[in-house]
Amino acid sequence: MAALSTPLEFADGRVELAEPTLVDLAGSDVRALNSALHAVDVAEKAPTWRVVNPDGRHNIAVGLDADVDVVVDGHVGYYCAGMNKAATVTVNGNAGVGAAENMMSGTVRIRGNASQSAGATAHGGLLVVEGSAAARCGISMKGVDIVVGGDVGHMSAFMGQAGRLVVCGDAGDALGDSLYEARLYVAGSVKSLGADCVEKEVRAEHLAELAGLLTAAGIDADPSSFRRYGSARRLYNFHVDNASAY
Amino acid sequence: MTDNTAPAPDPALRESATFDRATIADIQRAAETGIYDIRGGGAKRKVPHFDDLLFLGASMSRYPLEGYRERCDTDVVLGNRNATYPLHLATPVTIAGMSFGALSGRAKEALGRGASEVGTSTTTGDGGMTPEERGQSKHLVYQYLPSRYGMNPDHLRMADAIEVVLGQGAKPGGGGMLLGQKITERVAGMRTLPMGVDQRSACRHPDWTGPDDLEIKIRELREITDWEKPIYVKIGATRTYYDVKLAAKAGADVIVLDGMQGGTAATQDVFIEHVGIPTLAALPQAVQALQEEELHRKVQLVVSGGIRNGADLAKCMALGADAVAIGTAALIALGDNAPHLDAEYRRLGSAAGYYDDWQAGRDPAGITTQDDELAQRLDPVQGGRRLANFIRVMTMEAQIIARACGKAHLHSLEPEDLVALTIEAAAMARVPLAGTSWIPGHGL
Fold first, then answer.
1. Domain coordinates of chain B in residue numbers?
2. What's domain B41-335+378-429's architecture?
3. What is the ipTM of this complex?
4. B137-146 as b/e, with b when 16 or more CB fall inside 10 Å?
5. Confidence class of residue B328 from pLDDT cuts 50, 70 and 90?
6. For residue A102, which residues of chain B lie inside 8 Å, CB to CB?
7. pLDDT confidence of B244, banded at 50, 70, 90?
8. Window 163-182 of A, Cβ < 8 Å to B
9. What pTM does this model have?
């Protein structure tokens, strides 16, 4: 691993960031990378990182807890940027299962496609998948914003509790099954809605919300082309007449 | 419940063994309400248990230790396979995972106080970590559950160990539930749920499936916490031999095995009584699995589900466990089902000694409730003291037995110190039927 870079401080107060800290995973390991990214003074001493040759390794840049910017050149395995707080992680490639799972804040951007359970249980921050996301995208989401440039697979936003999921393409079967309070927007077709998920009116505040999310994600799409889905709230309290819906 | 004031029925009346009064009442209740029975606690049916085993105290062939004078150590280290900071506990009696939500904040605080007083660990539950619990727990295990309610990486980093929960003995294969009456503003806020909903918890983790994925998940948790903390894996007892092998191969530092007598805050009665196997049947399977992988005593085994006293503890240790966890017994020590609350239990349709409506949130003891007024009834300092007393008694009882068997540490107890009273227990525990050398299923 390359040595930590240090910001250049000039007499007039200017601060220029040195080159990103370069980590070549062909000659280093994920444990050393994560340990360095967890250093208490990492945001101050090495705010930008470039990771090359990830070769699908799992658990890259997990548990970050500082305002750092990490760019990964290539495909990553499971749980990249898992439990992210504050950091910005960009993957110039595809991501395996559970990208940005349980993210708390910050931004994670997958330039390619994401495997299943992207953004699972995430509490906050912004996850952008520029390609498509597989099944269970946003499963049990708890406040995160997820914007997907392409399609999402089946059971996306299953038991979604809070946050927004924006799908610029199509959604697979059982979208929003057993949904709580997450809000879903889909531009394309929805193969089927899950239990207790219904289409809802798109009002002005929703168009404004969508425009903001698309802008934040850097995706050019017309908010008026989306439909909105949410919970009918019929299953919030068990009633025997709804038994067949469970 | 029987009405003690009613005259005794005619002795000529014969109750059906198949349709006994409890069964009749169940059918009548289902017909009236259209919904299954939900309750707390563990299996109530009689199953082979540790009472079906006896110790062989020392005599001519074994040399006992002098009670109270010769040392019999009780400490245990959990999680030294990979973690920088394994847990070193003074007693092998730990507190099982129980959530804030299922229990009041004061009850969680009392558990932390009691556990810390005797140098053992307590465990969070679904819904996350509370300041009361962290603040009062010297050793706190943080549960990582399928719902991930309240799951926060800061709490992972604040924990002393992490327990990946695959299931629990009361409902292996089932998710959790917390009924709306316990989803107060604080509980709802911690779980990111609307107030008053019947909270459903998923039965499968949202981002992994199967042992290969679990290995990667465990590695992620290690990476996030810089390999400092032991990673436990908790399973409900079913196909224990295979599940333990897979969990150990996936990298677990500690395996928590919960038998069907293990309690729950709220689960369908049919699930509690008809899914899973007894703790006694599961424990030897787990030990066998670890031994075959040459991981016994390297991956520690914590056993729970109906552990009630020092004899149960000693029997678990003799069969190969490294520690036990108590849940229901810990709540009883805090004051659950206390006789002085009998009148209040009766007003709720129960009685002291029978109360299991932990799902309802109306607990007169102030333990399984989110009602502030009821919760105030439990003094966490006094409750902690009672729990500490109970754990001390359990530990001393186990020491008495261990010394009688000539053992200077609880971990030195072994299957050879045990015999069984019944054929079933002998087959499950894999120890001889008392007075014989016969272990059913062995040497045939």
1. 41-335+378-429
2. Alpha-Beta Barrel (3.20)
3. 0.93
4. bbbbbbbbbb
5. very high
6. 148, 151, 153
7. very high
8. 178, 180-181
9. 0.94
